[in-house]
Structure formats: C-alpha cells, structure tokens
Amino acid sequence: MKLKQPAAGKNPEPTELEPHGSSLDRYDIAILRELQQDARLSNTELASRIGLSAAPTWRRVKWLEDQRYITGYRAEIDRRRIGLGVLAFVRVDAERNTAAATRELEDAIRHIPEVISCHYISGSGTFELQVMATDLDAFSKLCLETLLTLPNVKDLHTSFSLGEVKVGGALPLAHLRPG
After folding, report:
1. How far from the centroid of its chain's Cα atoms is residue 116's Cα?
2. pTM, whole model, 2 decimals?
3. How far apart are CA 30 and CA 51, in angstroms?
4. Are 61 and 95 found together in one domain?
5. Distance CA 162, CA 6 (A)
6. Residue 17: exposed, middle, or buried by beta-carbon count in 10 A (0-12, 13-18, 19+)?
7. 132 domain-assigned
8. Does residue 80 fall inside a structural domain?
9. What is the mean pLDDT of each run of 10 residues along the chain (179 residues)?
10. Which strand (E) or helix (H) includes residue 120?
11. Do residues 58 and 96 both lie within one domain?
C-alpha cells in the first residue's frame, strides 16, 4: 500500500491511499464484510461504514473485483416463494475416475440448472450435488431422465433437506489479517 504524497503541510489521511499490492488491509477486509452483508450499499454508504471517503473506497472495490476477491453480486431469493419446495443433496458415484471421464461428467453437471452447487468430494462418491426441484415428482423425473443418464454415472445417493438452519451465510473473515 502506498500513500500519495500529501500537499505541503498536510498529513496523509486514509482517504489518500492509492490502489495497493497483493495483500488485504483492514479497509479491504471491512469492504468484504460490509458487501457480504448488503451488496446493494451505495459507494457513499460503504465508504461511511468503513471510514474512508468515496473515491478510495470505489478504487478499492474495483481492485477487489479485478483481483477476483469479489466474483459477483446476486440477489438471494426465497426458493419456496418461487415454487422450489425440494432441496436434495445427491452423491454421485462415478463408474471410473479417470481425468477424461471426470471432466466429461463435470461439464455435463455444469449445464443442469437444477444443480445449484457441485463439489468434488473425498471418501465415498465422486461428487456431492445440491439440487432443487419443485416437488418430489419433478425431482424423481430429474434423477431418472437427467442425472442417471449423465456420462460415467454408476449410482446416486440422495438425502433430502427437512429444514434449513442456515443458508446463504457470509464467508468467515476473522482469519484474514491486514497485510
């Protein structure tokens, strides 16, 4: 982090910070924390909350976006309000785990809108999918017509969510230390 040269007789203020190196400082961490809580904050409100003026706050947000600390902004939607009553966790067992077969399966999974997350997992199974559907009939149809027909799939194991305890949580930031 470099400070701009202050005008004669002035002390450098935090508002005079230029875009910085590769490490996060307390202002960057504060920006990440605030935007996770409310990504619709205006730049002026964000600046006020973190203790900087608007211009350096805007530069920092742009830098965090350019460096891919911030990868996007989206609205959180209540799935039940839009008719997605079933949330399932589906473990996919692959027939074989070669690099080519795994890449082919990954690519196919990426194209299924009902799969909202997919993780390559350790232990039993190859992938853990988070899948949403309108109801059990729609979920069953998705399994039979789409998931079981994916390349290299041997078996599926499903668990259904009986209730959400925490969803859409912000990432923990306490481990970040200003660099």
Report:
1. 11
2. 0.78
3. 9
4. no
5. 59
6. buried
7. yes
8. no
9. 41 45 88 96 98 98 97 94 97 89 94 96 90 98 97 96 90 85
10. strand 115-120
11. no
SS3 call for 89: strand
Question: Are residues 45 and 97 located together in one domain of the fold?
Answer: no
Q: Which two tokens stand for residue 18?
A: 């230029």
> Would 137 be classed as within a structural domain?
yes
Alpha helix positions (H), 4-149: 26-37, 43-50, 54-66, 99-110, 136-145
For residues 139 and 90, the answer to whether their CB atoms sit within 8 Å is no
Contact 28, 60 (CB under 8 A): yes
**160 and 87 in contact (C-beta within 8 Å)?**
yes
List the structure tokens of 25.
């400082």
Q: Residue 45's domain spans which residues?
A: 14-66
Q: What is the pLDDT of residue 167?
A: 87
Report yes or no on 175 lying in a domain. no
